[in-house]
Amino acid sequence: MATHLILQKIFKTGIVSEAAPKADLSLRTREQESHTQNQLHAEILKVFGQAVSIRCVDAGSCNGCELEIHALGGPHYNIEGLGVKFAASPRHADILLVTGPVSRNLEIALKRTYDAIPEPKWVVAMGDCAGGCGMAGGLFGENYASCGKISNVIPVDVEVPGCPPTPTALLAGILAAVSGGR
Amino acid sequence: MEKRSEAEFRGTAKRLGDVELTLTPQGHEAIWRFALDADRLPSFAQGIQDEGGQLLALWGSDDRHLNRGFAVHVAFLSSVGLIWTTSALAPDAPVYPDLAHVFPQADRMQRATFDLLGIKAEGALDTRKWLRHSAWNEDEFPLRKDFSPRPSPLAVDAYPFIRVEGDGVHEIAVGPIHAGTIEPGHFRFSVIGDRILKLEQRLGYTHQGVEKRFEGLDLATGAKLSGRVSGDSHTAFTWAYCMAVEQATHGRVPERALWLRALFLEIERVANHLGDLGYLGNDAALSFGFMQFWRLRETWLRQSASLFGHRYLFDRIVPGGVACDLNESGQVELIASADRLEIEVCELKAIYDEHAGLQDRFAHTGVVKPAMAARLGLTGLAGRASAQAWDIRAQFPQAPYDQLDVNMATARKGDVLARVEVRFAEVHESLRLIREIVKRLPSGAIHTPLEAVHGVCEGLGWVAGWRGEVLVAVRIGAEGKLDRVHPHDPSWQNWPLLEVGTLGNIVPDFPLINKSFNLSYSGQDL
Fold first, then answer.
1. ipTM of the complex
2. Which residues in chain B are closer than 8 Å to A141, comparing Cβ atoms?
3. Which chain A positions have a beta carbon within 8 Å of B117's beta carbon?
4. What is the domain range of residue A161?
5. Domain with A59 in it: what CATH number?
């Protein structure tokens, strides 16, 4: 009788999804000129809008940021309705979403993941540790085990501050990455 | 706290191994500490095991700047509470006898202690590196005070996995970067067809050098860092850290602050259990479960943000008390939302119970039998699902739990279903505790500044996090800065049990089994 109960619960719950935030362009840290000049790429963006695939890499976070990435998948945020989805392989991704200071034990894996994503691509550094900013930016520091912020290891397009950033802030950052050049 | 005599504390008079206990209470009523010759460690450990105790944590310290050598510290769980032993080791040849033959969970902790400090467990069967990959050289030890690293080649890890050989056996290598949004780690499956013959883990990818980072920090910044050892257990870690600091400095925490800390801990437990219950549905292909539980969780997090200023209550616990209060309207709101949440969780539990497909995936999957759990030291929530009836909130309650009569949730079957059932039961118990705490919240201050430190002092904090017992050991140096901090996440003990729990299961069930434990990578990688 689970079906009956499930339908009842869905009906009672209704739709809780909220409107998406606007892209927060102030979070951008660089513009990729070669891509904005690429006519084909501009055409593709026009057709597919903001349909982007994200590959997540935890490069050494405390797992706090991961909690909010998961929360983004919940019903309040409706990200798939916005055309944003998470990919299992970097080969299928447009955006690399990275959390944490980069641990030296994961440095090579992070670089390989970045290299595996086809051009054009954007990197979003999520959280104070990843961006080297805010209250927790310097908390882990750079030492024998930690390379510090993401841009010390791979190029970064958007940095989203927060410890951890809320799902809304993260979404605004993701949208800022892909609204470049339009 | 006044020093108790042995007669006042029943149970302390017993012998453990060849050691007669002369215990000194450490502020927390159930934490005991004493020095023990290193060569007597194995017989002492055996004594603990004979009376049904466990080894909780093992770590080392470089004490040469204090005119001593090195030291190895062990935290044992016993019938009198937590026993913290410290064994002094020679400065030139720091060795202690292997404890993994008594408590197998010591294996990875001993290997990590060698990687970080060069303190060796003599006679250990497994001497492979653990936290060290290739970020530092084999003959360098980051937690030694005189550590100054040479450049390391940062080549590949070259870890010697144990190979399973035979007709038809093949390996599946997963990670360190996984397909989903989870922390990095490597899993090496040896399989025949779809059936798992062996799983071997390789962790340490998120090793950020946290313990080194603690050295020299002031006490307040240390609290922030301790909360980021494992973000999902933020409250448990900061409370344990603050407990250790307050114990070391003889600080007194106002009663209201203690009650608020317990409130935060239960809010954290509910948030994590809701998330896991959702994902467990999702991993058994019931995305309805994910959407419902994560809706409830989101509402719960937003409430924390509006009442306390942070969705995950980060940095709300500080040395000497808490950083935010709960007013009367907040109390009403919290009780009402706990009531609402309880009704919805009951509705969803009815669906999970009725759902044949879900039950089919949950039951008899990822089994850790009670005997195995006891042998390998399975702890916390997963332990309680395998009949390891330990919950320090119930057995060794500190304020305010000593006034709350916590009901421990246990199950016997040790499968995914048992871990689901324990989570459901703990959500209900936590909601009861939250209402109870809010109704009985004592009035008064929420913070007392700690007094200045004169001289080296040490303390240990022990808190029942949602995953299991979190320990933080702290030494404060003479100048009032942190000298050595060791945070211990229960994932240390439980990761090897995930290897055991997956044996004989099929590969597609691994994500479900893994999620049912939901262990922390960063908490053990440090």
1. 0.90
2. 213
3. none
4. 52-178
5. 3.40.50.12280
